[in-house]
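Problem 12. The chain below contains 183 residues. Write out its predicted structure in token notation.
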Amino acid sequence: MAGIIVAFPKLEDARSIKNLLVRNGYSNVVSCTSGAKAIQMADILGTGIIISGYRLPDMSYKDIFENVERHFELLLLTSKSKDGMEEEPGIAMLEMPLKVRDLLNSVEMMDTNLYAVENKAKHKPGQRSPEEKHIIEEAKKVLMNMNHMSENEAHRYIQKSAMDSGRNMVETASMILTIMYQE
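Solution.
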């Protein structure tokens, strides 16, 4: 679960929203009354959700959002008078007076979205180093020369062999080179 920062000019407002979230199962919730403190807490938490009013004593919600890393989403609680505001990626808006269910649903949706983005980034394959690329290219050349394969066929062979054996392509290419140069 991501961390949640509740930032409002009045400490009572921040604490009441924090307490509401804690009562509904969110444990990593902090409250503050300034944008600078929200940014500081964001640096500590690393990823999460910021729930904020339109304006804090030292900065607006946009200033906060621009100063936190992109691992945060912002939930802006705003009055009807701020209707003309444009939608921005990473910023969701809820209208005041606040409905508890709307707040909890919005936080849950943002938390799920952050988890999905984080999970996707973890499972993204890393970039290969030049040495690893060279090993794969050498293995493809050997397969092309010895087995009369096209480059695409050699690549697919290494790829399929890697999947079948549960190894990555670099390990499989190294094994191919070892086997071919032993003969």
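Discussion. Residues 22 and 71 are 22 Å apart (CA to CA). Students who got a different answer should revisit the alignment rule from Section 12.3.
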